[in-house]
Amino acid sequence: MNARLSSLLVAGGVVLAGIHTGSLHASPVPETAIRKAVLASTSLEVDGAGAKVFIRVTGMTSQPGVQVLSNPDRIVVDLRGVERGTAVTRKDLAQLAHPLILKTRLAQFSADPKPVTRMVLEVAPGTQVLVGSSSDGVQLHMTPGQGHVQAKFGGISQTVFPAAPAVEIAAATAAPAGPIVEPLPKSSVRPLAALPGAGGSFQLLPQLVASTALTVATPEVVQTPEPEKPAPVHAQPQSRAAGRTLGEGLANYSGSKITIDLQNTEIRDFLRILADTGKLNLVMDPDVQGNFGFKFTDTPWDQVLDVVLKNAGLGKEIQNGVLRVAKVEKLQKEEEERKRLEETRALAGQLQTITRPLSYAKVGEVQKILKEMLTKRGSAILDDRTNTLIITDLPRNITVIDDLLQTLDVQIQQVQIEARVVEANKNWQREFGVKWPQSNNGSVAITGGSTSTTGTPWVGTSSPFWNGAQGFNRPASGQNASVAWSPGKDGSTSIAAPAGELWLSFLSNRFSVNAVLQAMEKDGTLKIVSSPKVVTQNNKKASILSGQKIPYPTQQGGAQGGAITVAFIDANLQLDVTPQITNEGTIIMDLKIEKAEADFSRTVQGTPTILRKSIETQVLVRDGGTAVLGGVYITNSNLGTTGVPFLSKIPLIGFLFRNNTKQEQNAELLIFITPRILRQ
Question: Could you tell me the pTM of the whole model?
Answer without folding.
Answer: 0.46
